[in-house]
Write a structure and sequence with these properties.
Length: 59
C-alpha cells in the first residue's frame, strides 16, 4: 500500500531530526513537528484506505 510505505519513510526520515531535537536543537524540533504533522495526515490516509478495502469485502 503506497500510503503505508510513505508513512514508514516519513517516520524513518524524522528519526535523525528527533535525535537532534533531544539534544536541544530548536530548529530540529520545528522540523520534527512539521514531519509529525505529515505523519498524522498520512496515517489518516492509511486508515481511509483500510476502511475502503474493508468496505469492498477485503476484510
Amino acid at each position: 500500500m503506497e500510503a503505508y510505505d510513505r508513512l514508514v519513510k516519513l517516520v524513518q526520515d524524522a528519526a535523525e531530526e528527533v535525535n537532534k531535537a533531544e539534544g536541544g536543537n530548536k530548529a530540529a524540533g520545528t522540523r520534527v513537528r512539521k514531519a509529525m504533522q505529515e505523519v498524522k495526515q498520512t496515517a489518516q490516509e492509511v486508515r481511509v484506505a483500510i476502511l475502503g478495502a474493508r468496505g469492498e469485502g477485503g476484510g
